[in-house]
């Protein structure tokens, strides 16, 4: 057995010895039952310490190549290596792409991922995404609650909870729902790892490939992705200032038999629209008439900066047609990933089957903490204080957007929520504006991701006003308007004409 | 406007007023623009305080039925109620069952849910499930780490993280993987909300309905459920004391082209089997030969109570055919729901698409805490101390099971992990034994849930030895043996004969 070691390189000697012996075993030079020299002897031969050889032998034992017994020395315990190697010679690294299911194979939309990645770049002003202002996180309160909980029930906080969620939290949320005029028992409430998980469960429970699903247009891109991944044909219904256009909806309900209607009636994402009460009644009426369930997504409902509250669809629904989704992510913080769903019990039962097969239950310490937060009555005051701040930030952004006359940007002032939905001048190429803005250190979300057909929405961008501080909002909007102006000045007046030339002549 | 109130019933007066007015609006008795009496006037009429009426009107405003303006009084603002009501008269509560996708509709296997629910019954001795001993949770350490983290980076801990996980934790796990002889960069590691989530992602990424998936028989029921829900045909391969029988596997690989092979090579769930090194090489060889990926699930690998470690498949795999799953749930505690997957980067990319559409990312505070735990070097000592305890508990359970000669129960002593897999006497009816045991306050998991075809496994039960204390283990096993004895004494010697009579005569 010849081993050559090199004391001048940085690889530790014992690793060199291990690798040499391993290669000899792999190559069949050292066959099964071959007796290796004793540690002392090999150490002498190589001019190294005995402990170095011991270490090398230990590594090889851990790899399952050697074994040693008192008095019998150290032996090779693997055979068939030659044969194995012969087979392996033809082995190619696996091409994983061939194994992906056809639904997931083409999916490469990393929009949310890319956007979140961008937060890492500290110098970017971030109007994209929908993140609460970290300065408003009640960190000290959460810390205090946690402190008490660890003292009182440390072990329980680290153990499993029920699949549907920690019961006291379901109960506290049932109380919170009463404040939103929704009467629901804790058994009709399921705790989710963020309300996005509810979207996934809905998609998996209801959608059979090629089912039709109806959404507002534009709508939350996460919902679009979930429904499409489950194989749904997603059809958008336009909105006006009162919300989803129910006349068009009725035509679609007549034409298709959709599995459900997905809506964000209050301070809609991305448009900021607040669905009027009459429109809500009309929507319910259509759901009843055509026997179609409604999925009401309500992450922003309590973030109201002006006007009277309008009751949720769930609170108006008398016949159990509405599934209601909400979350703590937009009110408190998103890192804990805790949301909830209110649904009739047959639906909760199906969801719990999927829940136990995905993450079993939601993070328990976070469920305890949020339950404490609600029970101590801290929620209402927190809402009030963040609404004051966000109203101010919204006003700052609106003012900044209006500073330049003739910027070509137009928008409705949202009465609540997280976003301003801006129309940009016709003819501006979205990728060009995105690039120009990012060079100026500004990111926003381009409109097309909110449309079922991503070819739509090119005239819109979504701006979030909750995350950045007011200084950055002012500076960032200035830069954005610059980028819009520059892009507009580069619009090719003949582009429409050129585009028309490309179309086939019929 | 006539309102009748009843002061003798428990419904608050303002609610009675609200309900009466609401009914009148619904019924069209109070049409749109109808002026309600002033609060003062109505209070006088009804003989109640003014604040009661104010409260009732406020509720009606929140419901969107009334509005009031200074000097103009309070008016009804809803029309079309008659029409709405006419439509609604024919509305039936929605029958949700008709909307469920056909995959999910028949799913009603609540085994894990039911078992977890049972923990709530404090008087039950719990040999079912796979839960770490709560007495061994490092509660004080976690509390201390958390304390430091809140002081140092409270805000960041509550914010979003990257979809693939908090990078420092991915890095710490990459170091941990080195101790398991797996070399992987942080980019090949994705943090999961429990390793069960990995199973779900694998099912959704790889399985197209009617694909064949190969598993050990018996195997983890959660994996069976996930694969089946995704539409796979799941085929089991028997095991012997060295693990999966690779000769039978090869026949199946020849016959089918399976999407992947799912295995728990080390201290298998439920059988406790430790796959031999030679078998591991043989399994890899077959994977290479037939170009089939291997999913290696390793929740128990570090819980070794005797014998030498055997390297994981992932550490032996030279060609990137193995996806490796692990978790903190069995080593530390399960309430935080943090696991991880090590996979080639094309797979991590697909998983991150699904991750962002399900829970976006794993709970951030827990990722920070586990990262601190690993970085402070607390993991290795923790493993050592729990292995000592679990070895002891295993020995106690083995001794208790062997106390009665001729109990008819037989088993192999597992060299690690969480479970003892027991064969019970032929002829005992599983539901009867389950019932008898539960009457004696003992729960365990019946063998059939671990088989692809649940008609198999009726001669086995799985006992967990980590959760209960040694006193309960002794007492519980005594009771279980009693139940087995009683069930055995009731075996109908003619049952086989009777059963055969029921079969159609061919």
Dominant shape of chain A: globular
Report the count of strand segments of chain A.
16
Strand content of chain A: 5-15%
Number of domains of chain A: 3
Oligomer: homodimer
Number of helices of chain A: 18
In the CATH hierarchy, what is the class of the largest domain in chain A?
Answer: Alpha Beta
- Spans where pLDDT lies below 50 across 5 or more residues of chain A: 109-113
Helix percent band of chain A:
40-55%
Structural class by sheet pairing and helices of chain A: alpha/beta
Largest sheet of chain A: 8 strands, mixed
Protein name (chains A, B): 2-aminoadipate transaminase
Domain HTH gntR-type (chains A, B): 11-79
GO molecular function, one term (chains A, B): pyridoxal phosphate binding
Pfam families (chains A, B): Aminotran_1_2, GntR
Tags for this model:
alpha/beta, about 500 residues, globular, 3-stranded antiparallel β-sheet, 8-stranded mixed β-sheet, Aspartate Aminotransferase, domain 1, homodimer, Arc Repressor Mutant, subunit A, Aspartate Aminotransferase, domain 2
What does this structure look like?
The structure is a homodimer of 506-residue chains. Chain A has 506 residues and is an alpha/beta fold. Chain A has 3 domains: 13-88, Arc Repressor Mutant, subunit A (Orthogonal Bundle), CATH 1.10.10.10; 111-131 and 381-488, Alpha-Beta Complex (Aspartate Aminotransferase, domain 1), CATH 3.90.1150; 137-379, Type I PLP-dependent aspartate aminotransferase-like (Major domain) (Aspartate Aminotransferase, domain 2, 3-Layer(aba) Sandwich). Chain A is 44% helix and 13% strand. Chain A contains 18 helices and 16 strands. In chain A, the strands form 4 sheets. Chain A has an 8-stranded mixed sheet with strand order 5-12-11-10-9-6-7-8, with helices on both faces. A 3-stranded antiparallel sheet of chain A has the order 1-3-2. In chain A, helix 12 links the parallel strand 10 (294-297) and strand 11. The termini of chain A are far apart. Mean pLDDT of chain A is 88; it is low at 109-113. At the A-B interface, helix 4, helix 5, helix 6, helix 8 and helix 9 of A face helix 4, helix 5, helix 6, helix 8 and helix 9 of B.
């Amino acid at each position: 057995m010849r081993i050559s070691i090199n004391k001048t390189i940085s690889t530790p000697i014992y690793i060199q010895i291990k690798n040499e012996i391993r290669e000899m075993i792999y190559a069949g030079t050292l066959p099964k039952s071959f007796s290796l020299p004793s540690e002392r002897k090999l150490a002498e031969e190589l001019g190294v310490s005995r402990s170095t050889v011991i270490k090398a032998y230990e590594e090889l034992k851990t790899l399952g190549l050697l074994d040693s017994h008192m008095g019998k020395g150290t032996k090779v315990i693997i055979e068939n290596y030659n044969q194995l190697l012969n087979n392996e010679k033809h082995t190619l690294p696996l091409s994983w792409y061939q194994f992906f299911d056809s639904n997931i194979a083409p999916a490469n939309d990393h929009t949310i991922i890319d956007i979140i990645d961008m937060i890492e770049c500290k110098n970017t002003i971030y109007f994209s995404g929908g993140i609460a202002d970290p300065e408003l996180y009640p960190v000290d309160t959460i810390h205090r609650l946690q402190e008490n909980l660890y003292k009182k029930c440390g072990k329980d906080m680290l153990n499993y909870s029920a699949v549907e969620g920690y019961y006291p939290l379901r109960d506290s949320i049932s109380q919170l729902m009463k404040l939103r005029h929704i009467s629901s028992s804790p058994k009709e409430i399921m705790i989710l790892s963020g309300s996005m998980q509810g979207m996934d469960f809905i998609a998996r429970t209801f959608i059979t490939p090629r089912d039709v699903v109806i959404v507002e247009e534009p709508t939350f891109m996460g919902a679009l992705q979930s429904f499409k991944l489950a194989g749904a044909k997603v059809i958008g219904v336009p909105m006006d200032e009162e919300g989803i256009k129910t006349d068009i909806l009725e035509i679609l309900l007549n034409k298709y038999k959709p599995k459900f209607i997905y809506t964000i009636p209050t301070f809609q994402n991305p448009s900021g629209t607040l669905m009027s009460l009459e429109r809500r009644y009309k929507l319910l009426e259509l759901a009843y008439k055509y026997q179609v369930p409604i999925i009401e997504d309500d992450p922003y409902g309590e973030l109201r900066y002006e006007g009277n509250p309008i009751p949720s669809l769930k609170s108006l629904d008398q016949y159990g047609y509405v599934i209601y989704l909400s979350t703590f992510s937009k009110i408190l913080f998103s890192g804990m990933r805790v949301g909830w769903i209110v649904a009739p019990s047959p639906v909760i039962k199906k969801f719990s089957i999927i829940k136990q097969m995905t993450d079993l239950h939601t993070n328990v310490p976070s469920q305890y903490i949020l339950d404490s937060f609600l029970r101590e009555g801290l929620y209402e005051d927190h809402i009030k204080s963040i609404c004051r701040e966000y109203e101010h930030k919204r006003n700052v952004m609106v003012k900044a957007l209006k500073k330049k006359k003739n910027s070509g940007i137009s928008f409705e002032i949202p009465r609540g929520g997280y976003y301003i939905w801006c129309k940009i001048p016709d003819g501006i190429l979205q990728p060009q504006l995105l690039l120009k803005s990012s060079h100026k250190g500004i990111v926003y979300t381009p409109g097309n991701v909110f449309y079922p057909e991503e070819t739509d929405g090119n005239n819109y961008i979504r701006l979030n006003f909750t995350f950045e501080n007011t200084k950055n909002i002012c500076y960032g909007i200035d830069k954005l308007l610059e980028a819009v102006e520059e892009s507009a000045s580069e619009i090719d007046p003949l582009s429409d004409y050129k585009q028309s030339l490309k179309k086939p002549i019929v």
